[in-house]
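REQUEST
  id: r-88c1
  op: predict_structure
  target: G/U mismatch-specific DNA glycosylase
  payload:
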Amino acid sequence: MEPIPDHLKEGLDMIFVGFNPSIRSAEIGHHYANPNNRFWKILYEAGLTPRKYHTTEDHLLLELGYGLTNIVPRPTKAADEITKEEYTKGKQQLREKIQQFKPKIVCFVGKGVYQEYSEKKDVNWGKQEQSVVNGTIDFVVPSSSGLVRMKIDAIVEIYRDLLSLLATIKAQKK
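RESPONSE
  id: r-88c1
  status: 200
  body:
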């Protein structure tokens, strides 16, 4: 299966980084396409989008200042199918994307994604003390997968913290 395209450009407020595309995402060519994935619902409920977007509208996030990418481009049924070599290559490619596009915030959708990227074992939700790439802020939110056992309200609250951080950054730039 083919990887799905990133949605990235320079000067974004934020890039969302997932593990890798699901099989469903690869089949239709759009991010967070698995019907059990709550990404689009969470973004809307947290106030990050003005409405609930459909997965086929993933490219429209660029208009809001948000980008989408993954640490590993190869689609799989589950993240445990990703090889160590793919993570090693993906980490380097992600670092290069962040350096090239210079987003204000890099939001990792799942602790595991950030643990793989940063090589840190102990990771908390929210803003990280130190970012991997200077000049950006690393922020960790729960995975939007339907397999995550956290209550949706608790997940949405962490995404609201992301919105609050973004508002603070924008206010400081004025």
